[in-house]
Structures are given as structure tokens and as C-alpha cells.
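retry 2 of 3: previous attempt timed out while embedding succinic acid. Reduced batch size to 1 and resubmitted. Inputs unchanged:
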Amino acid sequence: MSSSMAQELLGTSFQNPVLLAAGTCGFGEEIAEVVELDRLGGLVTKSVTLEPRLGNPAPRVAEFRAGMVNSVGLANPGAHEVRKRKLPWLRERMVRARVLVSVAGHTPDEFVRVVEILDDADGFQAYEINLSCPNDTRRGGLAFALDPDAAARVLEGVRRRTERPLVAKLAPNTPDFGPVIRALEGAGVDGFTLVNTLPGLVLDPETGEPALGAGAGGMSGPAIRAVGVHAVWSAAAHTRLPLLGVGGIAEGQDAVQYLMAGASLVQMGSASFWDPRSSGRVVNWLDAAVRRRGLDHVRALVGSARLERKKPQEPGPE
Ligand code: SIN
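retry 2 succeeded.
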């Protein structure tokens, strides 16, 4: 792979801009037989919570024509087990690829305690703070990312406990990214991932039963690609921090749209379920596209969308 694919951000170097998204690759080990992980830019682990979680009732995933819905319920072995059994594997096997540990919790304190347990271990470079899980309703159904003050409280707590880079994962159903981005920048965030899944519901048209054991879930796949690309482009108007784009990327042409909208890295999720080799193909496609377009570096694509930002309209006379 050519050096024109490397991206420097979050205090480290990613050998290429293609990562696997949280919740789609476990802790790496689960998919190592079918994906050449160390050829990728990196991966984001399944979200880690303070206590082990068994997750939501089955079925946890259901496909529909334009994508899939999931309500896994943040199933994971808990922070202590991740430190003991998952991080050593990642440290050994992810030599060139980078690792972001996703962190989730019901309260700001739970996020902080996960970070306290993991922080002095090896095997990862940064945290992705999951402020936007649509399936975790203990807070009353509102994700932290939809409440800028609550999101900032999480970030402030975590920021005090770690010097590692912190990337905040935001929600696609955010009406205006300005307030949450400003609140998180004030709290010391280092970058943003856009976007998590979009709340969705699939019903059996005969019985009215939900397709998922938990009822509603988070929608991903091709159906949310345009939402994700738009979210990255909208967020880029509010921040100079690095953006990581995710949602519906299955091909190189999808990834390049996220880069053009302003993302420095992309993450692939649902597509890896359908075809575990798709991430490797996207890496190859981007590498070839950079050369075919006569560019020096993949970063020349970042923010290259030819789209004017409209200024908000002044209210006219009544
Ligand atoms: C889940 O585990 O239910 C999904 C996590 C997420 O979307 O953040």
C-alpha cells in the first residue's frame, strides 16, 4: 500500500483511512479468520461498559431491503474482562492497524470508571465515546448526544482521567450539530464520529410484531449513507477537529463521498456482515482512485465536495 494513503490524526498515524465500526467486529479476534485486520487503518471495538452485559432479547438484528436494524443492547464482557483478555490480543495482533476502544455507560460516572479501568493498559490508541446508542433507554430514551449539556458532562469526566485522544460518536437525528460540537469542544474532545445508527422500527406486516426482540432499534446500511454524508458535511461547518464518517459504506465510491464531505477517516459497519472482505476492497479502491485522479495523497479528497454552504436567511419583514 502506498504512503499516500496514510492519515495523521489523533496523535497517531493510520496506514489508510478505512476502519471497522464499533459493534461490527467485536474485539477483532472474532473476525480475524475472515478479515485481514492489520491491512486496515484500524478498528473500533464493541462498546465497553463497566459491568458485563448480556444484551437485549433475540432477535437482535433484522434485515430489510435498504439495510438492517439492530438492538444488541451493548452486549460485552465488561471493562475488567476487556482489559484482561481482549486488549492483550489486540496489542499482539494489531501491529500496523490502530485501535479505538468504544466506551458506553448509563451515567457520566460509568464512562469515567471504564476509562479508569482501561487507561494504563496497552493495545489501543484512543477512545471513541459512544454518546449516541439508540438502544440504551435507561436514561429515558434520550441519547447523551442529543443533550449537549449531558454530553459535555460525560466528556469532562473522561477528559480528567485520560490523556488519550477522545472521539465523540454523535447521533444522526441531531437537528443542529453546532450546540453539541461546541459543548464537547469546551469539554476537551479531540474529534467526532458521525454517525451512529438512526432509530428505526421494522414490523411484520401480517402480525404487527416487531422484527427485533427489543422492539425498535438502530438502522444502518445503505439507507443511512446520505444521512451520514450530510451529517459529516454539516459538522464540518462547526469544527476544525478531525471527523470520522460512518454509515452505509459498502464500496469505495461510498467512502470517497464521506472524505469529500470532510471526513479524515471512514468506518465500515453493516457491509462487513454481508461481505467480510468489503473493507479490504475499499482500501484497494481508494488507493487506486488517488493514483487514477493524479492526487499526491488521499487527504486531497478530504473536504473537496463542490457544494456551497448557504448562509442562514435573515428573517424578512412580516
Ligand atoms: C447496541 O449494542 O445495541 C448498538 C450500540 C450502538 O448503536 O451504539
